[in-house]
Specification:
The complex is a heterodimer of chains A (285) and B (168). Chain A has 285 residues and is an alpha+beta fold. Helix content of chain A is 32%, strand content 27%. The N and C termini of chain A lie far apart (49 Å). In chain A, 53% of the residues are buried. By secondary structure, chain B is of the alpha+beta class. Chain B has two domains: 2-77, Ubiquitin-like (UB roll) (Roll), CATH 3.10.20; 86-153, DNA polymerase, domain 1, CATH 1.10.150. Chain B has five helices and five strands, in the order ββαβββαααα. Chain B has a five-stranded mixed beta sheet, sandwiched between helices. In chain B, helix 2 (86-93) packs antiparallel against helix 5 and helix 3 (103-116) crosses helix 5. Chain B is globular, with a radius of gyration of 16 Å. Classes of the chains: A alpha+beta (285), B alpha+beta (168).
Chain lengths: 285, 168
């Protein structure tokens, strides 16, 4: 299987990339790591007129500290995320989830920003970005704008990115206090997508859970926050019973799909189990 | 067509390729490097794994134009002519293959794993080669082979907790 012919642009700066997208004709695809795009192009599910390849845009790679946030370049590979000390210090939840993405080879090419912009409901990083209240910095020919995670994910494979725009970096606020984090993923075989997964960040104050943030993967067309669970956990005793009672609310407001991997009602059961496990691990119990 | 300059297995090439040409097809059809095989064509099986600037990638999921200016190592370039890389030797000695189709990719992925983790446990080997599918061996002997090679590559003793079965 070979992709249909396309024109190829390989910019080296964000400005060049935006210009290449603007000049690329009616059907332009922006390629980050290409680990989702190349497979769909081979299957001819996508046959863009122009591909703008971002792999040489050095300014979009790497992680830096900026005041009360860490800023992750959209083209930072999964592999680089896994070895980054700032992510390990401030947002280990991202590394925890990234470790479960695909396989080593794919993680060498695939990127943090590419996975977020692709917005696959079964992708692992959107729910993590949502749980951490990440902000998405979007560049266009007319300047930059910042969109919160809750507004970034609009629908199945659809984000707030407008035509001609580029996701350039993701700002992840540094959480204050002592947080435990865990990503609990359920799938059946190696390198498979999540059937359901839960991203949990928990702040404990002694024997009490002061605050919890829970992101759900593949429980609807976009990642969701389990706000019922978060409310039930705030101020709760850090005990197995209290966590289990709160986790029972994880399916509230979700609308998972039924597919070859699982029926919707099974996913709604699974999410309560995985939420209990994720919160338990994040709370250090 | 786009001009690319790429080093493959230590030899410099300058070629014109269509942007849509996949790296694996460039290697096989333009350079004759048929040691790298196409298994699934859907980015799952890992049989086409090569090293791109020292990192394992699935060459069916990289465009040849993306290798411009890069160093590619295939299964044909990991050991001098007539000799075996420790990973190849270990796959041979530990019966890490039956039909052999997945082997080039298994070996390239395993070398990449051992470069990062010189002393992997059984579980770490299994995780490390999760991007490579083998439909013959059941993986047992592949895990043993990777651990034997890891020991040889780092000059230490193997860590396998498994005892060798009768077939080994």
């Amino acid at each position: 299987m070979i992709p249909a012919a396309f024109a190829y642009a390989r910019p080296t700066t964000i400005d060049e990339a935006l210009q290449a997208v603007a000049d690329g004709g009616e059907d332009v695809k922006i390629m980050a790591g290409g680990q989702s795009l190349i497979p769909v192009m081979r299957l001819r599910l996508a046959a863009p007129e122009t591909v703008v390849d971002l792999t040489r845009v050095a300014e979009m790679r790497g992680v830096r500290e900026e005041g009360d946030a860490i800023v992750i370049g959209a083209m930072t590979t999964h592999s680089d995320v896994l070895s980054d000390p700032l992510i390990a210090q401030w947002a280990p939840l991202i590394a925890d989830a990234t470790e479960t993405v695909a396989d080593r080879q794919v993680r060498h090419r695939g990127t943090f920003g590419g996975a977020l912009a692709h917005a696959d409901p079964a992708g692992d990083l959107p729910a993590v970005a949502l749980a951490l209240d990440a902000e998405f910095v979007i560049a266009g020919l007319n300047g930059r704008r910042t969109v919160g995670a809750a507004e970034f994910f609009v629908d199945y494979l659809t984000t707030a990115l407008e035509e001609g725009e580029l996701l350039v970096e993701i700002r992840v606020p540094k959480l204050q206090g002592t947080w435990g984090m865990h990503y609990e993923k359920f799938n059946r075989v190696a390198q498979a997508w999540s059937i359901v997964a839960v991203a949990a960040a928990v702040r404990r104050e002694g024997g009490v859970i002061a605050e919890a943030r829970i992101g759900l993967t593949n429980m609807g067309p976009v990642p969701l926050r389990a706000s019922g669970v978060e409310a039930a956990l705030a101020g709760a005793e850090a005990t197995a019973e209290a966590i289990a009672a709160a986790a029972d609310r994880a399916a509230e407001g979700t609308s998972p799909s039924s597919d070859l991997n699982a029926q919707a009602d099974y996913r709604q059961h699974l999410v309560t189990v995985l939420t209990r496990r994720a919160v338990t691990a994040a709370a250090g119990l | 067509m786009t001009e690319i300059n790429v080093r493959v297995d230590g030899v410099a090439y300058a070629d014109a390729v269509e942007p849509r040409t996949l790296l694996v097809h460039y290697l096989r059809e333009q350079l004759g490097k048929v040691g790298t095989v196409v298994g699934c064509d859907t980015s799952n099986c890992g049989a086409c794994t090569v090293h791109l600037d020292g990192e394992a990638v699935k060459s069916c999921t990289v465009l040849a134009v993306q290798a411009d200016g890069c160093e590619v190592t295939t299964i044909e370039g990991i050991a001098p002519q007539g000799s075996l890389h420790p990973m190849q030797k270990a796959f041979h000695e530990m019966h890490g293959l039956q039909c052999g189709f997945c082997t080039p990719g298994m070996i390239m992925a395993s070398i990449d794993l051992v470069n990062d983790n010189p002393n992997p446990t059984d579980d770490e080997v299994r995780e490390g080669i999760e991007g490579n599918l083998c439909r013959c061996t059941g993986y047992q002997n592949i895990v043993r082979a990777v651990q034997q090679a890891a020991a040889e590559m780092s000059g230490g003793a193997p860590t396998s907790s498994e005892t060798l079965g009768a077939q080994s």
